[in-house]
Amino acid sequence: MHPAARPSTHARADASTSERTTLASRLHDRTATVGIIGLGFAGLPLGVALAGAGFRVIGVDLDASKVDAINAGRSPIADVQDDALAALRTSGKFEATTEYAALAAADSVTICVPTPLLPGHVPDLTYIESAVDALAPYLHPEMLVVLESTTYPGTTEEIIQPRVEARGLRVGVDVFIGFAPERIDPGATSSPGLTVHSVPKLVAGATPACLMHVQALYASIVDRLVPVSSLRTAEMAKLVENSFRMVNIAFVNEVALMCDRLGIDVWEVIDAAATKPYGFLPHYPGPGLGGHCIPVDPYYLVWKLKTLNMPSRFIELAGEINRAMPAHVVSKVATALEARGLTVRGSRILVLGVTYKRDVADVRESPSLDILGLLAGRGAVVAYHDPYVPVLDVPVQAPGTIDIHGAPITLHRSDLLEGLASSDCVVLATDHTSYDWDVVVRTARLIIDTRNALRHVGAPAVPNDGTRAAIVKL
Predict the structure, then answer these.
(1) Which residues does the annotation mark as catalytic?
(2) Looking at domain 298-473, what is its CATH homologous superfamily?
(3) Interatomic CA distance for residues 34 and 363, integer angstroms
(4) What is the pLDDT of residues 64-88, one digit of tens each?
């Protein structure tokens, strides 16, 4: 049951200034009702943290199956444990719904929706626009609206603020608008030392009064708040964080290509360089870049700057390098097979791990999809194993076309031992901690190790004696 709705907008608009400022006190004493739009990797951990701090939380998500699972105490993401969610459901502090009307009862609403890319690396803001439009009928005086979704500088002012003001509400007086970018590291944020509470939180407001209310909300769950001077500063800071990682990964991926040509072990090079106690921050190469953030978010900045006729050369070059890595992996597969008298066409190739990073169930932008698609396009008999992914749709490039995202094929997870033993080549693409690398090496014949996961696995007493797989590094 939803609590009784707040008084009408007209009635609340007549409230005195002292009455309107009670929102801050409700946030401070945690008697406010907080809404969350989007119950994914960012929204659900935030909502659980706020409910755990004492707020009543209403989560809105259009995925009915997800809402049903949450209300049953079953978490759809690894960073929120079932027992923690179930306890909050039992206490009545957290509820999920598909109905935006429930947010009429909210004092504060935080938007945590996806910000993907359209073809051509164009920002897709429809999730933010739809969320604000659906919230608009339930906006009322004494409400805080915060955007957490990563986006280009100016989004909060250009998309959210006009829609709020169109309801006749004055920003900084009647309602308060802020930006506080999520800093969730999926699969890691639930681990000790890296939690919603311990990761510093950037906060910004459209006005000083807005900032004060944003701080009042997040101070209840975050150990360190980092207020910045403007919404655009906070939006830009988040893009710089992710662009920094994208560019540095691209650099080390290119170093891997250099070392491959020079016959040098790139991981040994990086480990050696990392012994310098200053001026060097180690990054490590891989089969490509994946996930919902690093391969996507920097292009929001690229697009914004293009509207100002300014290039973003580092980011665009980094994207080119990272996108080329799956093809490099396929080239390594072809060379290794040819050395054994085989070709890619007709060979049985198993990709080990298809999520974009270890120990998560997320395949968004995963380079494993491109590796499988490129191999299938060259005639390989492809298969995969991943403990987190039972079924996988893989776009396959048709021969003679330039479209890398052709018609998909549907693959079902292979049996691990059978797949390892029957494959001509295994591509180690994602190094899940559940894999027993000794078993993998003893069972497979040939492994392309793109993650240096086998660095601690002993070599056979006699090279190529058939007791252990031949290992080819990235």
Answers:
(1) 293
(2) NAD(P)-binding Rossmann-like Domain (3.40.50.720)
(3) 31
(4) 999 999 999 999 998 899 999 999 9
